[in-house]
Design brief:
Helix content: 25-40%
Number of helices: 12
Mean pLDDT: 95
Radius of gyration: 21 Å
Number of domains: 2
Strand order of the largest sheet: 16-15-14-13-7-12-11-10-17
CATH architecture of the largest domain: 2-Layer Sandwich
CATH topology of the largest domain: Dihydrodipicolinate Reductase, domain 2
Oligomer: single chain
Length: about 400
């Protein structure tokens, strides 16, 4: 546990400073400027590529290690909070090792690549008498927690249906950025990388959290059908529509894609017996009563939510009852992803339907499935299967 007040700052370590680790590094820099933490160690496996960062962190007092194994040998019992913004396949191994070394952990989303790995983390957490928080940053916002209290209080009645849609074009470069992108397994561990488990994982997890039966609980959704497609040349899928149901009977519809030329920021809609909720990512939340007031309030940006997330880590170190996104919450998302993978085989979009379009930002190409944007719009409105509304292209999709 952290030293008592007045006996030193929380001791923090970071595993990885490039890729997504750069975002955590930015949070650490801000905390260092505010003199809220002491950065005691960092693992940087490619030190020759980032000499300026190595020098910066050493100047801040951090010991630099070339491997996680060496870090754990030297820092066991000396770190209060270990940050793990690594590839999904390393989440379980590094989190468990940190717990066994006496560290609390903030691991980037998702919790793990498989339910078995999630269970192993939770067992290690209990055995070590430490805590693990997960980097689903939206849950750390005051707006999300306030909305959860309103739903639990039945302000708009019982949840009948919860849906989420998100469309973000992604080029070939997106899946070339790491060796594990778009793969089911990597480095001898499950990854199950997909829009549901990566780019849009935040919003699937948030939807399940809103449907949970208590302030610290998410709903376990049973998958009823999963349409999984790919246009990219990857092992997993880049497009999906999933139907599921919560234990309380609420219907779920989740639709996402990267094989599209239209950007549609994530939306979560919650239909209740006495009203509805609209959650528009980085924009606003609307709480509408059928026969009453309409409440509208702005939502923070992703960057603001990450700051709140890091603040929550420091609060948790001071007070073990301070709320975080726990493993109990996040493991529901991991189990859902695993169920989706079992529910349907990945099918190829017919090449005749795909236009590869240049993307100036990445210098690569985006696969654009003709008619997909319109099909998603109609499927979302009617909560039906994607192939059903692709009309003349339905037979091609279903036979692929």
């Amino acid at each position: 546990m952290p030293p008592p007040p007045g006996q030193g700052l929380p001791r923090v370590a970071l595993i990885g400073v490039t890729g997504y680790g750069a975002i955590y590094l930015k949070l650490l820099r801000a905390a260092l400027r505010r003199r809220e933490i002491a950065l005691v160690a960092a693992v940087i496996i490619n030190q020759e590529k980032v000499p300026a960062i190595v020098a910066e962190l050493q100047a801040a007092g951090a010991a630099i290690y070339p491997t996680a194994a060496e870090f754990f040998i030297h820092q066991t019992g000396r770190v209060d909070l270990c940050l793990v913004p690594t590839g999904i396949q390393w989440h379980a191994r590094l989190t468990i090792a940190a717990l066994e070394a006496g560290m609390n952990v903030l691991v980037e989303k998702p919790l793990a690549g498989s339910a078995a790995d999630a269970d192993a983390i939770r067992s290690a957490e209990l055995a070590a008498n430490r805590w693990v928080a997960v980097g689903f940053q939206d849950i750390y916002t005051l707006e999300a927690r306030w909305l959860k209290t309103q739903l639990l209080a039945g302000v708009v009645g019982d949840i009948r249906e919860i849906s989420m849609i998100g469309l973000w074009p992604r080029s070939r470069a997106y899946f070339d950025r790491t060796a594990w992108a778009g793969r089911a397994f990597a480095d001898d561990a499950a990854v199950l990388d997909s829009p549901l488990n990566n780019a849009f994982a935040h919003f699937i997890n948030l939807a399940l959290y809103f449907a949970g039966d208590s302030p610290a609980e998410s709903a376990a959704a049973t998958v009823e059908s999963a349409e999984l497609f790919r246009a990219h040349r990857i092992e997993m899928f880049d497009t999906a529509v999933v139907h599921a149901r919560t234990p309380a009977g609420a219907r779920c519809w989740f639709g996402v894609s990267h094989a599209i030329d239209v950007t549609r920021q994530p939306e979560i809609l919650i239909e209740c017996s006495a009203g509805r909720v609209e959650w528009w990512h980085e924009q606003r939340c609307v709480l509408q009563h059928h026969d009453g007031p309409r409440q509208v309030f702005p939502l923070p940006s992703t960057e603001e939510a990450r700051v709140l997330m890091f603040d929550a880590m420091l609060a948790r170190l001071r007070d073990p009852s301070s709320p975080v996104c726990t493993t109990a919450i996040a493991e529901k998302h991991t189990r859902f992803i695993e169920d989706v993978q079992r529910a349907g085989a990945v099918r190829e979009f017919p090449a005749s339907l795909i236009d590869w379009t240049p993307d100036a930002e990445s210098g690569s190409d985006i696969p654009v499935v003709r008619g997909l944007a319109e099909a998603f719009d109609r499927a979302f409105k009617t909560k039906t299967r994607l192939a059903t509304v692709l009309e003349r292209d339905e037979s091609a999709l279903l036979s692929s």
